[in-house]
Write a sequence for this structure.
């Protein structure tokens, strides 16, 4: 393993039965193939990283600059940068696969864009309890209640939890275990849920966190 992460997409969730009979809920991710499109160097860019691409982009949608940047790999829809533990073994044009970067037992951090829920009230968005259900209260069951005093401070504080747009923001799930790797299909199975909708883009990288103790 040289590069510490790749791009992929979320396929869905399945149950995996381990050798001991334990049933594990896993998210299936299609990871790669990811061509290396550029290598960042401290001398030229001020930092070191490996830039990889994922997913073909229709040629007519790609600009001339995008086609030139990705070269013989064709226009790529997504680009991302990951650190590497050995930059000398990575070359531009090289194609990285799931089995080359991840193995069973690895711990990974996964980032995606959470599902958009649209405009939601405070009960769903912030888990408010709502108002009383009796004593003459007929229309306050899901209302937020008071949002501030009238005369002092005479305004609503910034950050007050109210109704509004919910979801659709970057979210991460950390320190998940890789349970299974299917190299021939480019799939990895991770224990737990992953942010985002099915077919959504995800970033998978080796975690920096310590392995969780068994409970």
């Amino acid at each position: 393993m040289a590069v510490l992460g790749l791009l992929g997409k979320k396929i869905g969730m399945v149950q995996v039965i381990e050798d001991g009979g334990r049933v594990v809920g896993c998210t299936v991710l299609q990871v790669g193939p990811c061509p290396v499109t550029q290598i960042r160097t401290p001398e030229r860019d001020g930092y070191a990283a490996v830039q990889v691409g994922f997913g073909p982009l229709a040629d007519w949608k790609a600009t001339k600059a995008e086609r030139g940047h990705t070269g013989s790999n064709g226009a790529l829809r997504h680009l991302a940068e990951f650190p590497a533990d050995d930059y000398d073994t990575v070359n531009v044009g090289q194609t990285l696969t799931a089995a080359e970067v991840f193995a069973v037992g690895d711990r990974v951090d996964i980032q995606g864009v959470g599902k958009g829920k649209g405009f939601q009230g405070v009960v769903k968005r912030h888990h408010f309890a709502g108002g009383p259900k009796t004593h003459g209260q007929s229309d306050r069951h899901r209302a937020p209640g008071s949002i501030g005093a009238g005369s002092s401070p005479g305004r609503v504080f910034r950050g007050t939890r109210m109704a509004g747009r919910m979801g659709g923001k970057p979210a991460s799930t950390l320190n998940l275990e890789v349970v299974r790797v299917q190299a021939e299909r480019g799939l990895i199975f991770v224990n737990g849920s992953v942010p985002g909708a099915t077919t959504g883009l995800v970033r998978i990288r080796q975690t920096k966190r310590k392995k969780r103790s068994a409970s």
Observations:
- The mean pLDDT is 89.
- The helical segments are 42-45, 64-70, 98-101, 122-126.
- The longest helix spans residues 64-70.
